[in-house]
Each structure stands twice: as C-alpha cells, then as structure tokens.
Design brief:
The complex is a heterodimer of chains A (327) and B (494). With 327 residues, chain A is mostly helical. Chain A has one domain (23-28, 37-326): ABC transporter involved in vitamin B12 uptake, BtuC. Chain A has helices at 5-36, 44-69, 77-93, 98-123, 127-145, 176-194, 196-206, 208-213, 218-244, 255-265, 277-296, 301-326, and strands at residues 151-152, 246-247. In chain A, helix 1 (5-36) runs parallel beside helix 11 (277-296), helix 2 (44-69) crosses helix 7 (196-206) and helix 2 packs antiparallel against helix 9 (218-244). Chain B folds into two domains: 2-232, P-loop containing nucleotide triphosphate hydrolases (Rossmann fold, 3-Layer(aba) Sandwich); 250-487, P-loop containing nucleotide triphosphate hydrolases (Rossmann fold), CATH 3.40.50.300. Chain B is built from 17 helices and 24 strands. Classes of the chains: A mainly alpha (327), B alpha/beta (494).
C-alpha cells in the first residue's frame, strides 16, 4: 500500500475538486444573472467592470488569505484602505512624485499590519480583539490626518490604475490595477506552495504547538503574515484612491467583511490551516458578480445586501457539506 | 448483542460478534487498536447502526436510533475523552440535558438535590456540587461523568480506557466505585489496554480481534499471557529486541536542573549508544524535564550541556544542535493533523528541498516516501492528511520527523502510548536499531509510564518522583516492583 503512485494522484484530484466548488459557484451566479439580468450584464464591457470592481477586495484578500490560513483574522483592512487613500493624497499634495506617493500609501499599510502583528505576539491578545482595536485606531488616524474631510489631490497617472481603459490602451486588455492583483496572486500562490515560509504559515495555522515543537519561529511568522495583510490592504487602498481620485477617510467602511467573506467562500477555514489563493480570488469575484448583477437588475441596495449575506452562508455551508462527504 | 456485523465501505469492522453482559458483573472488552472495540460500543450507544444482528436489554429488543435514545434506555458511555462542559459547575453538568424545570425555568433546588444524591456515592474530596468542572482533576471529572450516567438511572455503564490518565491512587478509588456499582446490580463494560487492571477488576472478558470474537471466558481462570495470545493471535517473541550496544561519549549532561514547572531537580548523563529510561507516575515531572531540556519551557536553575553547547536554548536551536523531541500529546502537539504526512514529517527541516527558502513539493514527497517505506507507515502516500492515519501510524510519522532531521539525541515522551501492539513492536525495534547502529549510534532519553517497556528496552532507568530525578539503575538490576516503590516515594533512592 505504501508506494502507490495512484494514491498521490487521488490527492491531487481531491485538491482540485476542493477548488471546483467555488468555481462552479462562480459560473452558477454568473449564468444566473446572465439569464435573468439585462442584456448589458454579459457584455465584454461589464466583464471589465467586474474585474475592476474585484481588484480592491481581491487585492486585500491576498493578505487576508495568509492571515486566515495562520488561524488569525484581520479586521483592520477596511480602515487601512482608507488610511492609504489619505496618505497617497497627502503625499501628492506635498508634490511628491506619484510613484513615491503610491509606495508611501502601501508602506503605511504595511506598518499598520506590523503593528497588528507586534501587538498580537507581544501582548498575547487574540487577533480578533487586537485588530478590532486597530480598526478604530487606524480609522481615527485617517480621519485626523484628513481633518475629517475628503481630500482632493492633484491629477496624476495614479488615477488611471483602475479606470476604464481608453481606446488607445486596449492592448492592455485589463487596467493595470487588475493586472497587479493577478501578478501578486500568482506570487503569493507560489509563496504558499513553493517556499519554506508558506509551509510555516500552514503549520502555525494548523497546530501552533506542533509548529513550536518543530522549532518554527511562530511569532516571526505571525508578524510577517499581518505585515503582508497590511501591505496588501495598503495596495488595495491605492486602487481605491485611483477609483475615487481623492483621499477619503470614510471609504471602505466594513470592507474587511467582504474580504473575509471572499476568503471563506474560497475554502479558507477560520480555524486555520486551510485556504487557497485561487479560491479567495474566485470568492472575491463571486461577491462582485452578485453586486454587479443585482445593481444592473435595478434591485435596491437592501435587496443586494440580503442576497449577498445569504450567498455567503450558503456557499460556506455547501462547502463544509461537500468536504464531509469526501472525508 | 448477537451476531453484530458492521461494514464501512469494503472494510468489515465487525463480524458475528456476540457479547452478553449480566447485571452485577464487570465485563472486560479487550483487543488491539482497530480490533473493533470502539465500533461495537458505538453501536451499543446508538451512535451508529449495525448492519446485521440484534441487541436486547433486560430481554427487550433494544434498537436505539441515536445516543439520546440509548441513554434514555439506560446505556451510559464514559469515553476516553471526557464530554463535560468545562465552564459549568459539577451539578449543572450532571443534570445537563435533563434539567428539572417548569416553564423553561430551571428548578435550582431540585437540580442540587439530584446531583448531591448521585455524588454521595463517591465521597471524593475534590468534588463539591458548585465547583467548576475545569478546576477538577481528570480523575474527579471522570467521576462526575459517571455520576451523570447514574442520574439518568443507567443499567449498563461502559467505561472506555478510564484509567489511561489516572494515578495509581485514583485508579484504586475508581475500582472501589466500580465494585460498589456492580454490587448495586449494574452491568459494566470495561475497555482497557492494561491487562493487569483487567485481571484485577473484571469478572469475565471478551477479546476482539479483526472484528471477530477471539476469546471469551472467566478472567480469574485466564492468565495475562493467554489474553495477550488471544489479542495478537500469534506469539510475540522478542517484543523487546536488544542488539549489541556499546556506550560511547556523553552527549547530554545536566546537573540539578530545575524549571518553572514541576521539575525540581534532575541530574543525568546520557551517552551515545544507550537508551536511558525515565520512569515515574503521571505528573511526576517527567514531561516537564523533557520540555525544559528542549527549550519549550524555561530553565530556573542548574547546568545543562547538549553536545558541545552549554546552557538553555530555544527548540529551533535544539534541533540545530542535533536534539529532537517526540511529544506525548500526539494530536495536540506532536502532529498538525490537518496537514499532509509530508509536511508533518519534514516540518522541522524543510531546507534541502530546493535553493534557500524554496521548496519543491516533489522532492519533499520523495523524502517522505522514503520514510514511509522504511518505517512501514500504512498510508495512501505523502500527501495524505495525518488525521486519516491510525494512532500507531501517526506515531511513526512523528518519530520519522526526528529521523528525517537526523538528530543525535532523541527525547521520546511516551512513544507507544495508545497504539496497537504491532506498531509498538516496530517502534521498539527502531529504538534498538538507532542506539546500536554501526558507525554513529544515537542517544535516546525515553519517558514511559509502562514499567515492562522500560525494563525491556532501556539500558539504564532513573525514576522521577515529585519533580526529583533519582540516580539511574542498570536496567538489568531492577525489577518492576522496585521501580514502583521508588516512583510512589516509598523508597528513597540510593
């Protein structure tokens, strides 16, 4: 029994079957809206819009996937997104070059994430509470920096990161912001699969005591994971800025819940040790397709919210049911 | 229970099993891991249905559809892992699920009376009805669980490995209670790995092997050797192999080491080419000694030298210095059960599967497969989840981690606890091979609660009692009786 090559194959198949659930879900909601929604829903233009709208949640979900695999949670990403838009706007107003302003916004996010990680590991307080605290702290800081107002910024190429493509840019197929999400998704996927750090993140999430017994620097892994979550939230903030073209301290209120939902729909388990980048990206897409479909059908906002909520619960319940059947 | 059969997929877990337990008797159910004991008891308790066969209780046909029905009918199960609500009080736990109430309001007074009545039989000093269950010792918690069974008026009490985490004293107290319940006319099914206990407490026994009854009879008329033969179906000669061993240079030296835990004072020298056993009762501080050595817990005082390195160090450092540890708590600490065998086995040393920081899963799997073959780990391959293996195979994975890391000093904490006899024999062989290997034998520090195992496999044995480690004896010069006296603090070590 020991050396069956067939065994290895079954596990690879099983892994793909695990991903098939979310993908089937995505196809299902898309076809559903294509069937009952207006003509405009399945236009190429709308596909591009869906991709653009996914970029913010999807980018933040990259970091959140790591956090959730490590059995943590990060509630502060919505606030970090808002802070990043303010930092970018402030830097642009101070005549800093757009590239440096963008990096500044991302760095601010990464620093917030490091703060989360340091507080969680030093104070030994659970991530839910620490990031609940930083959710308020960072949001407050953003409002303070912006003097509780929206903050205009001079025009720059940053505004085009997530704008609809102009005819002469059609060769790009998708806006740069979407491409950045795709590229980073591939990088993080490779980190999880092909690096020692990736294995350590899974180990810490699956059983922290085992990780400690095996000599893994658990605290360092955690700080790293939250710093990355902050960094990607900062990058998502840059996308948000690009869409708004201004800094807004009240933007992305509650966005962390969308991001967490995307990861969980994609197969992430809040008890840790499970999750996949491709799954999270599909999860983020499912969320946007539902939003986009509902709004194109002219459904009021409150209906959209009820539908989204119901789909999150249904998706995760289905996933758990399927897994139980497999094992 | 007559002609019970249960099949899971293609595996027949039980076949034609007959079991009759009389009122007022203790019936021992024994067998290796995987022999079908748990399946049989799950059927009895209504957790799973039988495919064939029938059960009767007091001459009435008994067909529980779920555990609640079985409980109502009078079958109470006390599992190895206790199922109490740790934050609730003793009395709330006892009446949980059947609180006397009116209009949804719990009648506090009746609750207390009912609980007191059930507890009165035990006279345990720790248990007061208001105490929080989480604050009680394991032994006391177990009694609370039995009390819960009594409150519902059970006729059949099933105890699954009740003594595995109890001290000698608690065990004898438990036996007293079992005997009292027996005299009250309860039918008691007693599942255990410890055959000495089975001899002591049971009236009759049933041995299961590979899902079938391998033997039944009066306990008093059967020797332990005969029981073992029925369990394994073959003679295990050479359970404890012993090749030529040669003691070499010391690799671990500690002097009056104390930790911030139970460890008060320990001095020892461990050499290459020997197995040094640490005997003692549960909670004597043996695990604390290993954890302190390995850097999982802090050193309070004392000297400590691992290979050429002085002083305390973190687990990561210890691995680098050539020391590895096997945890006594396989599921809670030893393994990350939701991860693959490959990840579990190579977790302490993921380097070498690619350039720095990079890891190619195919190489990781290849290295894992090598150990799977070498240690005969029954699995579907390196990518299978550790949770899906049997206890014995999980333990081999945890042990293989130390071999993969190629450490020189192995700290093994209860390496054979709760695993089947065949796996045990393989682990003993492996231990023997590691310390006798030609070129560079390893050094092994072995903690165990099972004296025959220590006497069989170790070269020297030191006893720990209340946090203090006594001087080591040559294994050939002590016997079980002497070790027990020392472990219970009856004899001051010489």
């Amino acid at each position: 029994m020991g050396k069956s090559g067939a065994g290895a194959k079954t596990f690879r198949i099983r892994k793909w079957v695990n991903l098939l659930g979310p993908i089937a879900g995505l196809i299902f909601v898309y076809l559903l809206f294509a069937a009952i929604g207006p003509e405009s829903f399945h236009s190429a233009r709308n596909l591009e819009t869906i991709a653009r709208q996914t970029a913010i949640t999807g980018t933040a979900a990259l970091g959140m996937t790591l956090v959730i695999i490590s059995a943590g949670i990060d509630l502060s990403v919505g606030s970090i997104i808002a802070l990043a838009t303010i930092v970018v706007a402030l830097l642009l107003r101070a005549n800093v070059s757009p590239l440096l302003a963008a990096l500044g916004g991302i760095l601010a996010g990464a620093l917030c994430g490091m703060m989360n990680g340091a507080l969680i590991t030093r104070l030994k307080v659970v991530p839910f509470i620490v990031t609940l605290g930083t959710l308020l702290i960072v949001r407050g800081a953003a409002k303070g920096l912006a003097r509780e107002q929206k903050m205009d910024a001079p025009l720059s190429w940053l505004n085009n990161l997530l704008a609809a493509l102009k005819p002469e840019q059609k060769w790009m197929v998708l806006p740069p912001g979407v491409w950045s999400m795709v590229i980073f998704a591939i990088i993080i996927w490779m980190v999880l699969r092909y690096t020692v750090l990736g294995r350590h993140i899974f180990a810490v999430g699956s059983n922290e005591s085992t990780a400690r017994l095996c000599g893994i620097a658990v605290d360092r892994v955690k700080v790293m994971v939250y710093a990355l979550s902050g960094l990607f939230a900062g990058l998502a903030g840059l996308m948000q800025f690009s869409r708004l073209t201004i800094g807004d301290p009240t933007v992305a209120l509650g966005q962390e819940l969308d991001v967490i939902a995307a990861v969980v729909i994609g197969g992430g388990s809040l008890s840790g040790g499970e999750g996949s980048i491709l799954g999270s990206m599909v999860g983020a897409l499912i969320m946007t397709v539902i939003r986009s479909g509902c709004s194109q059908m002219g459904l009021p906002n409150w209906v959209q919210e009820i539908v989204t909520g119901a789909i999150i619960v249904a998706a995760v319940a289905l996933d758990r049911l399927r897994r139980r059947r497999i094992s | 229970m007559r002609g019970v059969r249960k099949q899971f997929g293609a595996t027949v877990a039980l076949q034609g099993v007959e079991l009759a337990v009389k009122a007022g008797e203790v019936h021992a159910l024994i067998g290796e891991n995987g022999a079908g004991k748990s399946t049989l008891m799950k059927i009895l308790s209504g957790a799973i249905p039988a495919d064939q066969g029938e059960m009767s209780l007091d001459d009435n046909l008994f067909q529980p559809k779920n555990p609640l029905e079985a409980r109502r009918a009078g079958v109470a199960m006390i599992y190895q892992e206790l199922s109490l609500a740790p934050h609730l009080s003793v009395e709330d736990n006892i009446v949980l699920g059947m609180e006397p109430s009116r209009l949804g309001l719990v009648k506090g007074k009746e609750v207390r009376e009912k609980a007191r009545e059930a507890l009165a039989q035990f006279e345990h000093p720790e248990i007061s009805p208001e105490a929080r269950v989480a604050d009680l010792s394991v032994a006391a918690q177990q009694l609370v669980e039995i009390a819960r069974g009594l409150v519902i008026g059970c006729r059949v009490l099933v105890l699954d490995e009740p003594t595995s985490s109890l001290t000698r004293k608690d065990i004898s107290k438990l036996f007293e209670i079992i005997n009292r319940l027996k005299s009250q006319g309860l039918a008691i099914v007693y599942i255990s790995h410890f055959l000495e206990e089975v001899k002591q407490i049971s009236d009759r026994f049933t041995v299961l092997r590979d899902g079938k009854v391998a033997g039944q009879g009066e306990t008093a008329a059967t020797s332990i050797n005969e029981l073992v033969r029925m369990m394994v179906g073959r003679q295990i000669e050479q359970l404890y192999p012993r090749s030529q061993r040669a003691r070499r240079e010391p690799v671990l030296e500690i002097k009056e080491l104390a930790g911030w835990n139970r460890l008060e004072s320990a001095s020892l020298v461990l050499h290459r080419g020997e197995v040094l056993g640490i005997a003692g009762l549960v909670a004597a501080g043996r695990t604390d000694l290993l954890r302190t050595l390995f850097g999982l817990e802090r050193v309070r005082q004392g000297e400590l030298k691992v290979a050429a390195y002085l002083g305390p160090a973190s687990p990561a450092r210890r691995w680098q210095q050539g020391m590895g540890m096997l945890s006594e708590n396989r599921g809670g600490e030893g393994l990350a059960l939701s991860l693959s065998l490959a990840d579990n086995l190579t977790l302490s040393r993921l380097s070498g599967f690619g350039p720095a920081g990079i890891l190619f899963p195919s190489r990781q799997n290849r290295a894992t497969q090598k150990w799977i073959d070498e240690l005969d780990i029954r699995s579907q391959g390196p990518e299978q989840r550790a949770a899906e293996l049997s206890g014995g195979n999980q333990q081999k994975v945890a042990l293989a981690r130390l071999l993969h890391h190629d450490v020189d000093i192995l700290l093994l904490d209860e390496p054979t606890r709760g695993i089947d006899v065949a796996s045990k024999a393989q682990i003993y062989q492996l231990i023997d091979k590691l310390v006798s290997e030609g070129g560079k034998p390893k050094a092994i520090l072995l903690v165990s609660s099972y004296f025959p195992e220590l006497l069989g496999i170790c070269d020297r044995i030191a006893v720990m009692c209340r946090g203090r480690l006594a001087a080591a004896h040559a294994a050939s010069e002590v016997n079980e009786h002497e070790l027990m006296l020392e472990a219970t603090g009856q004899v001051e070590a010489v």
